Every structure is written in structure tokens, then in C-alpha cells.
């Protein structure tokens, strides 16, 4: 197999491996914590800083290897060349042409532009009215209150 | 030697940051200009958070100086029963009208992260019929998680449940949760981590991995904000426009695009303007109304002879202004701005506190400073009067879903140990809601708890070491000593255990 392909596949495998290991470790830690809490220790912590750092350190070599392969690939200019090739979806081009041809009809274009201007003006006025009404009815302050007070569950804490 | 030089030049030419990349980095910095927050492990609580930034940026990120439009939208929908969130709707409409999905392509920090992840050299999954169909998933996420869940729980149960933030958002996990957890100051936050963190952390990993293989996976298939801005894309004042007089309908732009566009400027187009490079007829340009922001090398049809020079000069001026704004923002937020809501008590909250006799503070082992506060039922709660009983103080807010969910556990506990326990639930002083009416609506006005609204100067919050995060529970033993002071939800089992510990503890004093 071509060396470039080997590098690409190794990098992909390392990325997948690191994610799988990290996800498994976190799930495992959670299960252990829940089992311990169920054994009459409701105050026990499921996660701790030490346990989390230990997981990160345990799988750091995989991440480091992925970074090294990444650096080598960048230096050697290795990348999947296919990603730059144009997508060849027959229905995409046919649809593109028909829509564009319709759009290029000058008469239709003029009417469309005029409509667009009207809609833009209407939306702009509506948006400004909403903002002013929002400031008056207190929804701006509502937003500020929620933005400066963290709902711990909502950001994935608990 | 010359060859090596040329090679080096070409490597740099291939890898140097584009204007778009610089603007993405700039926006990420500007949205998160409160760098001090990362160092201190706290979030910014100033007034600029009453403005939504256009891109996806969690407002619980320690650096965030603006609000996340999607988080704000969900909270506004959840509060629809009390007040319609016109302000958030108006701001989102304004951003959508002005920029459409240009926000996704140029101004979104999460978009930047996705693009950087996609730079990792691996085999890539290109767009196909399958990815095209998958793009409609984001509308499902928008309707179910960002609209239906907050509306349903807000109107039916009076709970604020921002479905997308709570169950999916990788920005909340990476910027908010990880941003706070990574600071050793917040080591006690680990206590809170439960199934929500586990689930969202795994989701974040999966989305990150998907972005490595598939260009902007989150943006294309999941992002509800992208779905909203996509609806405005054709209306947007700023965006990529096609000169129909020059266009030969070859479709090269759509075929080259990594997003699932059918044609330039449709609801999937993020206006990144990369298609400008492949258009053989130079028909594509980036415009703000009639003003050309980015033009192909041959220029636009309506260009004057000196248009290119004018554009270059305007570009330099815009960069200079942008740098001055960023420098001013960094200076203001990190040097001149002082966060005003620091807890006034003497010691930091910790799982294991000092055992110093009679030290006033809020850490375990300390004695809380005495206070009196008027309750919603008209009575007065005085801390000194609860000596001899186990006392629990809970910090909550109507708009905090987990806070509302756990209050019945406190009521049950108070019912089980009536006469031997005093529980005070203190609502955050920042509220536009009618708290007594809310308590009546929930039927909590007749339960076993005492409710109070904290004073404007945050009397109780300061005494117990309350922060910008909620819920928080403080348990005092019969002598008024703190035995527990933690952020995060509590289970009925934990509450019972804490009661038993407090009732049995003999700390003297």
C-alpha cells in the first residue's frame, strides 16, 4: 500500500481509538461511581479531578502518537486528495442548471429583487420592533439573568 | 537551494491562514474576551451578556462576554408562560437578516473548531445523497430539542429545560463544562458530574470525531442555529451573490462546495466564498447590499476602474478598526472591569473545611454568619432561631430546571423530620418573575419549606458563598456549623444521609 495511504489510515485509526478509549473510560468511571453510591454512599463523588486526570494521562500516549502522525503528515503534505474533487451528483447539476436558468430570466429577476427588498424591510422593522418590545417587557433582563447564572445541568455538569 | 525555497514558499502558501480563518479566530477571541475568567475559573456577569453574539458560543464559557443565541432562545421559549421573549427573537432575526449563514462560515467559533478538526489528515467522507438527506436532521433537532422541549416543560410544568443545551450541545460541554472544570479552583464542581456530563461528554467526542472525517458534521447535520440562519440566507444582506449575466450554469461552484448546497446562497450555503476560486467566469462575489466585500480577481461587473484599490484600502482600515476594538475589549474586560458579585464571607467553599472554632464563613466546619430574611409567607426566618435543629439552605431559581426538580425532595425531607429540621429555599435576587405566584401555581406555598427571595444586595448569597451556578445546598448541624456546602443537584438519598450526618454530628461550638 502507498505510504501516504498508510499514514492517513493510521491517523484515522488513532483518532477513533482515542475517542473510543476516552468514551469507554468515562462511561466506566460513571458506572463504578453509581455502583458505589448504590451501596449506601450517596454522598460519594462519581468523578473527581484526580480520576479525570488519571484517565487523560492513561490515554495521552495515544493522543501524542496521533499528534506526531499529524505533524509528519502535514510536513509531508499528506492529505486525502479525493476531498478536493468535485462532487458528481447528476441530480445536483441538473437541478442547478434548471434553477439557475430560471433565475437568470431577467424579468423574473427584477420582480424577485423588488420582492426581496420588501421582505427585507418588513423583517428588519419586525426585528427592531421585537427588540424594543423585548426591552420594555423585560425579556432582555430575563436573558441577562440566565446568561450570568449557570444552570449546571444545562452545560453538562449536573 | 532555489528549489527548497520554492517548496517552502508553496508550503506556506498552502498553509497560511486565509482572511476567513483570521476572522473566525478574531471572533472567537472577541466573544471570549474575558480571559481573566479562564484564569479565575469564573464566568463573566457583566451587562454585555444581555446581547447575543451571532455565532455559537456558550455563555457559560469562562471567557464569554455575550450570550449564546440558541441558549437564549431556548430560555426565552421556556419562559413563554410568564413573558414572551421578544428581545431574543428580534436579535436572532436581525442577525439572520444581516448575515444569514455568513455567521456559520465566518463568525462562529464552533465552525472554526470543526474546520480545524477536519484538517487532521485522514480519509474524508465527501458529500453525497446520504449527507444531503442528513442535513434535514438539523431541523428535527431545532423543532424537538430547541423549541418543543423548552416550550412543553416551560408551559406545562413551569420548568426551564433548554433541551439542546441540556442533552446535546457540544459547545456547552467543551466551552462551559470543560472550561470551568479545567481550572483547579473549581475542583469541587466534579462533585456535580453525573449522567448528564457522561452523556454529553460522549456526544462531544462523537461529534468531534465525525468532524475529523466529515466536513462540519455538526454544522451540517445537527446545528439548530444553522437551521434558523439558513432560513434567512436568501434574505441576508451580506452573503455570496452570483452575477447572473456572467454565470453559465456550469454548477462548478455547487460541485466544489463541501457543504450540501444545491446552489450558491441556498439554505445550506455558509457563504464561505471558496467557490469564488473555482468559478471560471468570475461570476461569484461577496456583497453587503450593493457594496462588494470580496471580488474575484477579474473584478465584478459593476466595478469602477479603481474599485479593487478601494476595496483593499477599506479592507486595511477594517482590519485596523477590528484590532483596535479587540485590544480595547481585552483591556476593558481584563484590566478595568471588576466583577461585583464576589462572595463576602471569609473562606472559600470546600468539601473539607477548617475545624477552627467559631470561625465565621461558609466552608465545612465554619459557622454561618447570622441573618434574618423575610419569607414569602410573611414570616421572618432568623438563622439563630434554628439552633438545635438541622438547618438546610437551598439556593434556587425558577428558571433553573434542576433547582425546581429537586425542591420536592427537600419538602419530603422536611415532612419526614418535622420539628427537627428547618429548610429555607432562597431564590436568586435576580428575577423578573412573581415568586409568590409561582409558589402558589406549583402548590408549594403550603408545603413544609420556607421560601425567601434574596435581598438586592445578595444577603444570603454572600453569607453562604453562593456563586453564579445553581443549585447549591448548604447543610448546618444543630450547632449551626456547616457540614456540607456544594453546588449541583441532590438526590433524596443524599439529603437523608446529610440529615442523618447533621443530626448525629457533635462538633461542639
Query: How confident is the prediction overall: mean pLDDT of chain A?
Result: 85
Sheet with most strands: strand arrangement of chain B: 8-7-6-10-11
C-alpha geometry of chain A: flat
The rounded distance between the terminal residues' Cα atoms of chain A is: 48 Å
- Class by SSE composition of chain B: alpha+beta
Largest sheet of chain A: none
Instruction: Tally the structural domains of chain B.
Output: 2
- Roughly what percent helix of chain A? over 70%
DSSP summary, beta strand count of chain B: 11
Most extensive chain interface and residues per partner: A-B, 85 and 116 residues
Shape descriptor of chain B: elongated
The multimeric state of the shown protein is heterodimer
Structural class determined from secondary elements of chain A: mainly alpha
Cα distance, first to last residue of chain B? Answer: 82 Å
The biggest beta sheet of chain B is recorded as:
5 strands, mixed
Strand content bin of chain A: under 5%
* Count of folded domains of chain A: 2
Describe the protein's topology.
The complex is a heterodimer of chains A (158) and B (509).
Chain A: H1 3-38, H2 49-58, H3 60-76, H4 90-103, H5 106-137, H6 139-148, E1 150-151
Helix pairs in contact in A: 1-2, 1-3
Chain B: H1 2-15, H2 19-31, H3 35-40, H4 69-78, H5 86-99, H6 102-107, H7 109-118, H8 129-134, H9 137-157, H10 163-167, H11 170-181, H12 195-213, H13 217-222, H14 224-232, E1 238-242, H15 252-256, E2 284-288, E3 291-294, H16 307-336, E4 372-374, E5 380-382, E6 390-396, H17 401-416, E7 421-427, H18 435-442, E8 450-453, H19 459-464, E9 469-470, E10 472-476, E11 482-487, H20 492-504
Parallel strand pairs in B: 6-7, 7-8
Antiparallel strand pairs in B: 1-2, 2-3, 4-5, 6-10, 10-11
Can you characterise this structure?
The complex is a heterodimer of chains A (158) and B (509). With 158 residues, chain A is mainly α. Chain A contains six helices and one strand; from the N terminus they run ααααααβ. The longest helix of chain A has 36 residues, at 3-38. Helix content of chain B is 45%, strand content 10%. The longest helix of chain B has 30 residues, at 307-336. Chain B is an alpha+beta fold and 509 residues long. Chain B folds into two domains: 18-296 and 310-335, no CATH class; 372-504, Glutaredoxin (3-Layer(aba) Sandwich). In chain B, β6 (390-396), α17 and β7 form a beta-alpha-beta unit. In chain B, 50% of the residues are buried.
